């Protein structure tokens, strides 16, 4: 499946290079600004046709230039327009200065703006490239607009949002709609930036897509285009052993439910066979609840070694409800030595918190066979230095973690980032808030494990698992539980 513009993500610095390449190729850069500003004006009029006054706030750079074009276009449409500027507009340069000179709307200093009922705000102060805290006057304006409940349409990105990380730089506008250009930026998807953007419209302003492809940062929006080609298909010759065997390790008798959720999800994700490997004291508890999922007593290192003699048992999930004692570390080391694929989740991750290097060393060789699925706290336990570095975006943290562990890393959250050791990364956007419920992470681990069992590479299995998890949640509805979520897993897209 081809990657379209909607799937690409460029950091602000890469987008700046694309702009420069477009100008160097002979494209008139002011024409690009004109198209951008006109697109903003069109979006504003479409969304708020009853606006009593359109208030355009222009900054000191090219984002402000887009705003001046939008203000002119709005006035030409017959709308009432008010224009406010940050700083001294006489100091504008290049295309922004040209845009201001062609805008007939009189402008006042941003400090003088007072929100009025019926105003619709066009935020063209700062774009995606902002890398410092906004000045006090912008912070104050954003606060007063928010308190007044006025709708905001943001140009490129709401002012105050870091386009690279999604962080709020001191303060930020909260937009009802965001109009960006060429591709989306990481800050449109990463939290908290996503919450400030609301709906995002990506406008083609005429930059050839080959220039975007030339700045490929191996960063995309997660979706089938990233992994569908690696998703195994079935035909008339398929049988259960060809579709792979997934094993999920159970915890003790008092903590078996998580493993059963993961096992059921793995089966629904397409694994031909799924077994719960259970300690002796939990066999009866698991047996009482299992039907299509098989059960095997595996409670010691020797029993695991015997179980691994069958090489068809290729993929494993360890962590959900397992416990964080030495047995987890022993089992993981044995699986690595046997060349098996592993999804390490929850307790399995925490078991290595005191010393993660043995985990990384165990899976260091060859193509990635390990998928790590940490939430924020678990990520900090395995990668404390990365978690503590405020200069790193969530994408950079996930990429560095994946390289260090030679693993596919699912850095979980509403803005999950999935990264591979070779630098590929995707940001997921289809996870509804209803997934914040007990057991949903166990289901995710099982889906990924089921895809690994079918032979998908670690990164593709992880990315597909996260997307299918979100897709299932959307179908299950707002009142989903982990049990009902499983019923909506559908890998045949």
Gist of the model:
By secondary structure, the chain is an alpha/beta fold. The chain contains 20 helices and 17 strands.
Computed CA radius of gyration, to the nearest angstrom: 26 Å
Could you tell me how far the N terminus lies from the C terminus, measured between alpha carbons in angstroms? 12 Å
Number of strands: 17
- Class based on secondary structure composition and strand pairing: alpha/beta
* Major β-sheet profile: 10 strands, mixed
Please give the count of helices.
20
Mean pLDDT: 96
Strand content: 15-25%
Order the strands across the largest sheet as they lie in space: 8-17-16-15-14-13-12-9-10-11
Proportion of residues in helical segments: 25-40%
From the spread of the alpha carbons, the general shape counts as elongated
Poorly predicted sequence stretches spanning 5 or more consecutive residues: none
What oligomeric state best describes the polypeptide chains here? single chain
Your description of this structure?
With 493 residues, the chain is α/β, with parallel strands linked by helices. Helix content is 38%, strand content 15%. The chain has 20 helices and 17 strands. The chain has a 10-stranded mixed sheet, sandwiched between helices. Helix 12 links the parallel strand 12 and strand 13. Helix 2 crosses helix 4, helix 3 runs parallel beside helix 4 and helix 9 packs across helix 18. The termini are close together. The model has no long low-confidence stretch (mean pLDDT 96).
